[in-house]
Amino acid sequence: MVRLQKYLAGCGVASRRKSEDIIRSGRVSVNGEIVREMGVQIDEENDVITLDGSVVKPEKKMVYVMLNKPAGFVTTASDEKGRQTVMDLVADIPVRIYPVGRLDYDTEGLLLMTNDGDLTYKITHPKNNVEKTYVAEVAGNMNMGTITSLRNGVYIDGVKSGNQMTTELVYWDPEEQKLQAPFYSSDSSNKISLTRPAGVTCMDINEDGVIEIPAARPFEGNAAASNTVMPAMDERAASSAAPAYITQWQQYFPQEKELVSIQNMYVNTEEGYYFLMPSSWLETVTGALEAGERQFIFSEWVVNDEGVGASGAVILKIGVFTKANWDAHITATREFTSVLETEDTVYAVSIPESGGDKAISYQDAAKRFGLIESDNLTN
C-alpha cells in the first residue's frame, strides 16, 4: 500500500506537493470514485487510478537530466507570457520530466530535471535542509559599506499576497564565508520568516544604522491566532470585531543569533499615522477600531484567575477629524486634544482620567504620534 499523492509523484504526474493540489481539485479518481482527501492508501497492483479520466500508471524508467540552463528561459512547464521555458530545452526526451526547483529567467547554471517525484520532494522540501549555493557577479568592487550591510543582514521580500508580505533575512557568515538564512528550522516545513503589513516597508526605524523588519502581531484578544494575516484597513474598519494589529520592528543580531523587538507601534496606513506604543503596553493592552468612527481605542487587557481576558479601562483614544468636524467637536464635547494638524486634517488624542497605571500624559502621547510620510514607514 502507498499514499495516493506519492503514487502520483512516482508516476511522474507532478511533484508530491503539486500532486496533493491535484487531488484536492477533484481531478483524481480511485476505482471510479473521486478522492479529495490526503493520505488515502491505494493498492498499486489492483486499484485503478485515473487523472482527468485517463489511467495513471507508474513510469517504468526514471530519467535524470543535469541541465546547464542558459539565461533567457523560464523554469516552468508553461509560461503565460509566451516566453521560452526549460521544457523547450528537453523537448527531444521522450519521457515527460519536470524541473527540480527553479532558476530565475536571467540565471544560468545547474538545473536538475526528472520524472522522479520522490527525488524532487527530497531535494525541494525545506524540512530536508538541502543546501544550495549561488554565485553572483556584481559590477565593480564591493566596498566595506556593502560588506557591512551583508553582515548585518539583507532583507528579502517575498511575493505580495493580498495585504501581506513575507520578509526573510540572510546575513554574511564570516566563518563559512557565505550568506546564511538564520531563521531556517530543520524541524519545520517552512523557513521561520516574518509576515508584515504589505503597506509597511523595512527601514532603520531607530536610526542605529541597521535595517529592522516589521512584523504584524495581533493585539491581545483579537480573533487572529497568528501573525500571518494582515487584513486590509477597510476590512478592519468595517467591523469592530475585525482584528487589530501591532507592528513590531525586529532586528537580527548575527553573533547572538537572536531576533529582538526594537519598537512596537500601531500603524494606520489608511489614515496616514503611526503611534509608538510604550513597551509596558505589550501583552497588557489591547486595541480596536471604533466601528463607524475614525477612532482607535487602546484599553487595558485584564486576565482573570481562570485565564480569560477581556478589555478593561480605556487608556487612550486616537481620533482623526476633518477641519470642519474638529471645529464642531471643539464647540461641543472637547473630549479630544489636538496633537498634530495638516492643511485639512486634525489628529487628536483623548486620555480618560480612569486610564489606570498604563495611562500616559498628553505630552508623551504627542511625542509618540507621527505621520506616515512618503520617505518613511510605507512602500
In short, what is this structure?
It contains seven helices and 23 strands. It has helices at 4-10, 16-24, 117-124, 144-152, 233-238, 323-331, 362-368; strands at residues 2-3, 28-30, 33-34, 41-42, 49-51, 54-55, 64-69, 98-99, 109-114, 154-157, 164-173, 178-180, 194-197, 213-218, 245-253, 258-268, 273-276, 285-289, 295-303, 309-322, 337-341, 345-350, 369-371.
Describe this structure in words.
A hairpin with a 4-residue loop joins strand 15 (245-253) and strand 16 (258-268). The protein has helices at residues 4-10, 16-24, 117-124, 144-152, 233-238, 323-331, 362-368; strands at 2-3, 28-30, 33-34, 41-42, 49-51, 54-55, 64-69, 98-99, 109-114, 154-157, 164-173, 178-180, 194-197, 213-218, 245-253, 258-268, 273-276, 285-289, 295-303, 309-322, 337-341, 345-350, 369-371. Helix content is 15%, strand content 32%. A five-stranded antiparallel beta sheet has the order 14-15-16-17-23. It is an alpha+beta fold.
